[in-house]
Amino acid sequence: MAAKETTPAFRRLRGYAFDPSLSLRLDTRTVNKITYKVHWEELEKQVRDGKPCGSLPVGEYVEIIDVDPATGVFYPPLNLDDHYLLAQDGLEPSVSNPQFHQQMVYAVTMTTINNFERALGRKIQWAEQYWSGKGSKAKNDASRFVQRLRIYPHALRQANAYYDPNKKALLFGYFPAAPANPELHLPGGTVFTCLSHDIIAHETTHALLDGLHGRYSEATHPDTRAFHEAFADIVALFQHFTFPEVLKHQIGKTRGELDAQNLLGQLAQQFGEATGSYHSLRDAIGKYDTTEKKWKPLVPNPDDYRTKMEFHDRGAILVAAVFDAFINIYKQRAKPMLRIATGGSGVLPMGELHPDLVNELASLAAGTADRVLRMCVRALDYCPPVDINFGDYLRAVITADIDMVPDDENGYRVAFIEAFQKRGIYPQGVKSMSEEALCHDKHPTIGEAVMVEGFAALLREFKAALAYETNRRAIHDKTRQFIAGKTGDDDNGIHAYISLDMIMHPLFSKVTGLLFPKREDCAKLGMPYSHYSKSARFQVDKMWLANRITPDGEIVNLVVLTLLQKRGVVYKEDSGALSFFTPNGDGPADGFVFRGGCTLVFDLDNLCLKYAIAKNIDDKERMVQQYLYQSGSLGGAHGLTYFDETELQQMAGPFAFMHTYAH
Amino acid sequence: MKATSVTVRMYRQGFGDCFLLTFKAGTKVVSRVLIDCGLKWGDKVVGVEIEKVVDDIRKETGGKLDVLVATHEHWDHVSAFDPAKGYFDDFAIENVWVAWTEKATDKDAKVINTRLRKGAVALQLAAGALMKQASENGARLKADDERGKSTFAARAGFSGSVGKVAGFYGAFNTPLQGTALKDWLAGKPLKNVLLPEQKKTQGAKKALVKTKTAAKQTPGFAAAKNPATDSGIVYKDKYSNLSVQTQLAMEHLLGLAKKKSAISYWYPGELDEESIPGIRFYILGPPKNAFLNKEDPSPGKDKETYLRMNTALDGFVDGVLDKFYTGADFEEKGAPFNNRTAQAFTSTEDAKQRAANSKPNKDSYHPDLFYQYYAAENDWRNIDHDWLDQAGALALQMDNDTNNTSLVLAIELIGSDKVLLFPGDAQVGSWLSWHELEWEVKNNGKKEKVTTPDLLKNTVFYKVGHHGSHNATVKKLGLDMMSHPELVAFVPEKQDQYNGILYEPLMDALNDKAKGRVIVSADDTAKAEDAVKKKPGNISATAWNKFKKNLKVTKLFVEYTVSA
Predict the structure, then answer these.
(1) pTM of the entire predicted model
(2) Given an 8 Å threshold on Cβ–Cβ distance, is A661 in contact with B147?
(3) How many helices (H) and strands (E) does chain B have?
(4) What is the ipTM of this complex?
(5) Which one, of B18, B170, B6, B187, lies nearest residue B82 by Cα?
(6) Using a CB-CB distance cutoff of 8 angstroms, which residues of chain A are in contact with residue B300?
């Protein structure tokens, strides 16, 4: 619908800043309710018995269906366009009103989506549908488009919530609270996971990340599952810190002693505690010392990354690293402000802080959190499409930030590098932990081979076609067309250019880390053969346009392409021998699918390949690593009794049982 | 006469525990103790049928047991006491020992048992519902060429696994409904609750044939022999049937004691020196504190208590009972909202009806949310059954909870400092709680304090808990403390019964600690016969020969003698 002059910019919706439990605590009660400012969108209309009756909680991105199968009821859909609700910023936060639950979920998912779109500079897309349920239809790319993420606020009766990649849905659970005093056996009411900002943001992030990098949900490295979890936590945590109201309260409480690290770390942990089972990651930041009666930050151990293999523990390392970076940046930036406030001494007087100082510090912290959040999300465009590890992620953060902010005035990047280094996270194949070394090589030598005329024109055409396209379905379908070629002429797509042109060039294979052998060698290497490219098959998985405006006012135009390849590998642990099979259908029982891939970042302004971020398909070390991890020698298997872990992961996706079956 | 040695006979009937302990003074038998006698539902080892095991016990003991110990209420520990079989009815049993959790008058026991019973019902119903759903959705999933097939296989496997755990209660063959169910949940003995005709089929020997028929309808939902549906899963609608056989067996077993006063309900921290001269029984578990149902070691203080763990599943349990149990009216349905807001809630049945009456709307979003949900093209996103997946977590919890009610015995040969440890299937929570205990004993007229580390240090025979699963042998506060050079470990287990059993890393640790003296009862992949063929590298020839001298391996049992 075309925007009218009178269309409001935002839909204001009340909600919890944390979750309802904090409303019951005197010290946090006042800051627990905030008003979310959600970008205005027209919602789908509801018709009942032939009569229109307001709108449904269904918009461009999400579709909230409030069915509770265990109870056997539907809760009535919330009409956000009700004029009374419009006049009072939505429903009053309430545990006992299911319609408010819908409002809360809507507000937080939309806020999270908006944060991603701002950082990425484009519309987000959900992961495509795996199957249509109708066999042949599944092969048609266009029909795989998923318009909306389904959200079920009351789907489960368990202390769990998860993103199901099979259904492209968020399922939230509810459960009876633990009795406040276990001796009394008094039930403590019902806890709804759909009322926790952190849980909603966390699960929405799983869905968003799946839409960007679908292969990250495959557990191929001790880091892959940990990354999904940690990244979802990072988004939830920093999104929280962008609400200045919450920060003001905490900063105001501190009085004279203003050690920022403790202050915000403690707050981060409070979020975790409020959300029950989600707190394990937050334990990484620090703990309340019961003997000293003081919150203390956890001292990072450089051995952590090498020794902690369980994915929750491992994810915690990443969360702690990013949080550490954030704190150090904030501390640096707060210093001048504190000097002004204390007449240069830096020592604060006893008693309450001046409200102006509290405001300034809070907005500084919120601003810093927002910047860190965007850095973290934007980095996803610079990550390899498969088998991510924390080192890759650090390089992506640094590279993405250099592209965006060439001059690191406030030391954001240094703070990140230092925090990762302290925890023993070193990217592979990097000579030093300096900013220049971590940034991916600019303009890899491939130039002429890649930027053949038609290809360059195609990229610009892509930009022109998508730059002003706001319809997500159109974006999806057009992108698919650019990749595969327009109907009836499949030689003019991106895939065709790569297949017919680029792979001939020996440098292409070198830069992308993919293999393009002769037909007769394909089977030997365990790679499926493609008649089209007359070499090993590859897939153009994603194609994104990134339109970003830097803080300096420059416009950055990038096209990101991801390429994927797979091969079947058998590894014999005793002999150390590697052999290969073509991974189509059933392979040998001890075989596994190994993937390689490459993220190509093109600079549209200069029409050149800017970065090639590769995961080599011929990396023997990585094959062995994947085998060891998946066979359990590296902490992959958890020794679950009665249940098979792979089975659990395939049922409802890998996220369903992360918080329940593994301790 | 004081006992100076004990011979432990581990039967090899399959996946289940049965240990006959013979205490001797010199060559003279002083006492016979039987610890458990059971076999997993549907399991069998040809030539070592449970009847043969019972016959051997009868022959060996002359049909006279001084003590019968039942560690906990799981089929693989008590199945031989099934009243329908009456295997032990002709035995003279002097004493029956069980854990305090079996005591009807104990307040805590009552709370635990009500919970366990309710949970057991819910688990069995959920297992049935899951299987039904896997069967119904199977055809659709299998038709999908991408991830559908693997999802289907996973779902089928998962529902089978849940069914297998539910099988710990025996076969699904007892229609227990209405008041009977309520009374039973409230703690009444099962035999008083069942209808007369049920008692006949459940309790009397002449019902043998009938029970056998039931046995063929494998409760574990084992793989179907002749696939009858599109999905390939045969599902029998047995919602109204439950398995309560373990409890019947337990009740029957208690009735085998000579008189009521011959039943001992043991509490942790207690000590028995009277029953067998020269022998001390230390009672280590089940714990009577908050550790009781802690199934896994976990960081964070709020995860320690058992009630928290349980309440999280209460809503699920209520939901399952409400939805699938037609026989009883449950007051707590676990519904999350009790105040109905302005618009009335719509039942899923009504919504389905409305969706069916609605016409498809191709051009734009369908204005009826119910249609959106139920429309065939959106079938793949439907979540009608996803909540049932929690049955897996319930299965784990029910199993953990019951395992942790295991009676745990440390048996000491006085004067030798040698200890035999029988933990039943006790899991982590129980193990941790032992360390809070202390016993006072008199050695040579001198008072001494005994703690759990002392007992573990002196352990020369360890009956490996829970068939060698990952969370029933604690490392730091358990196995690591068993430092006796003569340590021997016996594992009652059979291959391919449950995922994760045997747990390889545990077996490695055991072999390391016991220097290769680890014997598994019925596992074809780790045969007892093979285990003694070759001396492991890390043990001295003297120690190995001594071990072999005290060991006897037959088709029916493996026997090991510990002397003071």
Answers:
(1) 0.87
(2) no
(3) 18, 20
(4) 0.87
(5) B170
(6) 279-280, 283
